[in-house]
Write a structure and sequence with these properties.
single chain, alpha/beta, 18 helices, 12 strands, 61% helix, disordered C terminus, binds adenosine-5'-triphosphate
Amino acid sequence: MTDARSIQVDPRDYRLDGRLARRIWRLAKPYWSDPKHWKSWALMAFGILIGPAWAYYNFWAAQVGAEQANALVSKNPEEWHRIFWLLFLLGIGRWLYGVILGLLNTLMQMQWYRWMTQWIVKRYLAHKTYYDIAMRDDIDNPDERIQDNVLPFIDAVLSFPTKVLGTILGLTTNVVLLSQVNSRMTTFVVVYSSISMVVQTAVYWPLIRKNFDAVAAAADFRFGLLRVRDNAETIAFFRGENMEESQVSDRLDRVIRNKMNIYYYNLKTGFITQFIGSVWTIAPLFMIYPLYFGGKIEYGTIALAMTAADGLRSALLSLDDYIPFFAGIAPKTVRLAQIVERFDAMDAQIARHSEQITIKRGDSIELDNVSFQTPGGEQQLAQKVSLTLKPGESMIIVGQTGVGKSSMLRSMAGLWVRGTGTMTMPPEDDTMFVPQKPYMMLGNLRAQLLYPHGRSDMTDDELQAVLEKVCLPNLIEKSGGLDADRDWSKVLSLGEQQRVSFARILISKPKYVFLDESTSAVDIPTEARLYKALIETGATFVSVGHRETILRFHDRALRLLVGGGWEIIDSRTIEPTLVQPLGASRVASEPVSPTDSGVSATNCG
Ligand SMILES: Nc1ncnc2c1ncn2[C@@H]1O[C@H](COP(=O)(O)OP(=O)(O)OP(=O)(O)O)[C@@H](O)[C@H]1O
């Protein structure tokens, strides 16, 4: 996950143009083009169709209101009471309309929200895209994008058709109403509102960028806090609290600066909006009252005209609203679209097979002219590697630090796909990759041991026997049983976690195992025990390691050279300095039997 500040911003993302419209369409289309979502279409159609009825209702209510005012002036209590109860019922109808529309909208929103979030998460996890994003570091805070942006996007898009319909109906009904009273006033409202629309558009334009920056700053602040949680122990060791406090305050300052920026901007523009509104409240009065004093209209018509003029103005002003509306949703849309565009790019890359290592499935490990690259293509690693590893064989990858040993394992696991050539790999279900820092899932000790498949018919005694083989004879007892639930990544030392990883191998019995410095945190006798147990399973395995002591457990070594070269050598006769000198623990130069590790069962740890 990366800091939003380090991401290059495309200035085109700040515009409200066809590109934004296409992005909205790209995000909305998958849901709305699926016939399975007919219910949402039905709800949407209902919401739209009820609009004209609602407009007519308001049209009629305005006329009834005028009749009531006339009944008041002509001192007609029966008529006044009749209209009063009618208006009371109309009020209930208005309330019911609001409730029904709110319910329909929420139902539609939740259906789409669930679907869209699941759709994005599915694509995020497919083809290991989450890993690609994390490695390339070009999409900041993907989790925040998924969690925070989907609902506001949906909310905005769903409200859009009703908003447009509301504007159209508001314009037509109020023009009809107002022109019944005075056509001059209709012209005034239209001209006045058009001018105000132009002014407001100019005023709101800069807000798009400000909103954008505010969203990125908030995501950044969250990221800063998350870093502290994720690295709590390291920070505590380094006593880095002061530095962390300053980085968090720094991010918080940015959030506040952006919020204040928007606030001051709204305050300034608020004066303009306020001025436009004030002129409006006075101006129509000067046009309507002379008509009344001249006996040209009845008293109730004043209220009717004012309601219609106000309705027409708000319909026209709602046009102004489209700019702030799009300015508000643009950042969220762009942040979501960027992540979906990355999914699309990933799919396209896979479909094209371009610059991508082809992976075939077979019963051995075979590299045919494979050249490896880092995920973004920044670095060429080992070039044109060809080798075969038959079932039961083992190989260690050695070479200078940073030369690309772990990367080769990542490519074999299908995590890094960039490069050329063809790699034959065993079926995924037959393989297990063991990283240096094991993953401890949430759950009890049994779940840790059975990870990743989570199923096994092994009894508790059998699990205990496995733990003894990996030098953890007391783990169950000291943890409070196999069903004890702890934060295992914290309560187990790294060496213990690495031994749990080996227990997982012995439990799952994969045919192929790939180990990336998986014994770096255990002592040499324990390492020997672990490799001995691995060899006994008969698995084919490939290790990456720095310690010369593990060379002897492998049939051969692939030595990677700086500049992309490589060579295959006999791992038992390799010059230890080609791996990494270990000082006192030099290995004997004569070949050693892999099963003769030189340690006894009691020699663990
Ligand atoms: N996500 C990444 N994006 C771009 N380059 C990367 C990424 N991860 C690693 N690299 C680069 O790829 C090169 C090979 O890294 P790799 O981890 O494979 O080396 P290594 O030989 O295993 O190193 P070490 O022995 O230190 O563990 C390094 O130069 C490293 O900086």
